[in-house]
Amino acid sequence: MFSNLLVKTFIKDSENIENEDVRNKYGYLAGIVGIIANFILFAVKLSVGLLTSSIAIMADAFNNLSDMASSVITIVGFKLASIPPDKEHPFGHGRLEYISALIVAFMVMLVGFQFVKSSIDRILNPVPIKFEIIPFILLFISILVKIWLSSFNKFMGGKINSSALKAASVDAMGDVFTSSTVLVSFLAAKFTNLPIDGYAGIIVSVAILYAGYSLVKETISPLLGEAPDPELVRGINQAILSYEHIQGVHDLIIHNYGVGKSIASVHAEIPADIDIMTIHDIIDTAEREISEKFKTHLVIHMDPICIETEEVAYTKSEVEKIIKYNPVIKSMHDFRIVGHGEHQSIIFDVVVDNDKMVKIMTEEELKEDIINAIKDVHPEYNCIITIDRDFH
Predict the structure, then answer these.
(1) Which domains does the chain have, with CATH numbers?
(2) Which residues, in sequence order, are CB contacts of 175 under 8 Å at separation 6+?
(3) Angle at 250 between CA 354 and CA 383, to 5 degrees
(4) pLDDT tens digits, 295-320
């Protein structure tokens, strides 16, 4: 409820999240709230750590300081990502949001490494911890603040589909665990002289390192070119097939240039005997409407389907029987027979499961298997096969 109140108060037209300016305001608000909250937590925990001589509490304090810095980077990332396209970057600068999240991840890991060292030193050279009730209460309140901050970032990240804010939410929830560990170790110091503080510091440091690693893994994937969202793939395919005369789709490729900034290309199968101007109008309409619906720039290539004669239909059925037993093949398309007499060729594409393909056989081995099987049944045909890998 409080998250909604903040959004309604500080973001005008907050429901219009498709608007880039509105989306950026969500990022700015989340960043500012993160800066304020984490600075307060840093100041409180650093004071408590210094008063009680607890390395675990001070490690947790500097973890909050790194979170504050990450909020600053988040704001900068949103600002840079909104820079309009230019000559050097014709598809915009949306990926800078991922880069900002990656920088945050490395900062988190740096803090973790620093405090692993400090915690080991504390175990080897113990320092008495002074337990006091007021610092204990302040630490408990800080945990509640982090729980809310995680929920807030999750709400904001989900609202605008931001990997940076979702990463901040996960990081904040990880802080809840580390702060709880610190709280328990601080309480335990009241009952024992063992260097529990140092061990708790190591636990906190390892948790910080794991959080940083998780963030690196999550943010570097779209930069490397991860597979598109299966729901987006399914939605685009179904939308194209809803248009008149389009009988099949294949070879959908989606390039991501940041949240809400993608380019897609696909092949649409159409009967070869349809008037070219008629199908051109249909394709133009499909490109425009689907691009608007899915917030992507879609380009559709027309693939004319060979008019099925009795020979084509029979041969296609035979080939389908041959390839359906191969575990790497998912489907076949663009089947046609060209040439005459002794110079006839079967031409078609097969879509393969990329993961299975890598483990079982090479493209050349697959082509050879298919050609040999076809030649056993139809030695009169030459075979021209194209392998399409399904990366979705």
Answers:
(1) 2-224 (1.20.1510.10), 227-305 (3.30.70.1350), 307-392 (3.30.70.1350)
(2) 60, 63, 64, 67, 146, 150
(3) 75
(4) 888 999 988 877 667 888 888 888 88
